[in-house]
Structures are given as structure tokens and as C-alpha cells.
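Researcher: Predict the fold of Ribbon-helix-helix protein, copG family.
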Amino acid sequence: MTDNYQPQPGQDPQEFLDSLTYRDDADTPALPPTSAELEEGMVTTSLKMPKDMRDRVRDNAAEQGITASMLIRQFIEMGLAAEQPGRMIPLSDAIRALNSLRATA
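Model: C-alpha cells for Ribbon-helix-helix protein, copG family follow.
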């Protein structure tokens, strides 16, 4: 078997599956960190904001399916990244930032 683990164009799917080798002794890939592990490196910081801003943050976070804390961290990261114009950012972050802009007339 080759190291190409993708079926080739026109290859019979069953032939491809039959060509795969399964090993019980292979290393188990690392799992992504749990939420508890992610929280270990976090510190608690409080901030004051107007109630309407807090409500907007919560609503925006809910629309994105994340917590308000996560959204605030993303906004802070974007602000800090803007302070370093020569720093490269992931394309997904750029798209998220562009999508968050309000449409202008």
C-alpha cells in the first residue's frame, strides 16, 4: 500500500477501502484540550461596561454560539493584532473581522 490515503479519481471505493491497512499498535492521536484544560491558563479580569453594551455582547456571542467571555477575548485579540500591522493573522480571523463590520451606505 502507498502512503496516499485518498482514493484516486475513478478508483473503485471498495478497492480503496480494501487497500487500507489498520494497525492496533498505532499511537493514539492526541485529543483536543478539554474546556477545563483551556480554562487552566486563563486569569479572571473584571471590567465595567454599560448595560446595553453588555447585552449587545451577550446577544452577539449567542448568535455565534460562543460565550460572552470568548467573544470579548476575540475582540481584544483583534484590537491587539491591529497594534502590530506587520503581524500575519489567520485568514479565518480576517474573514470574521470583515464580516463583523457594519454595512455602510
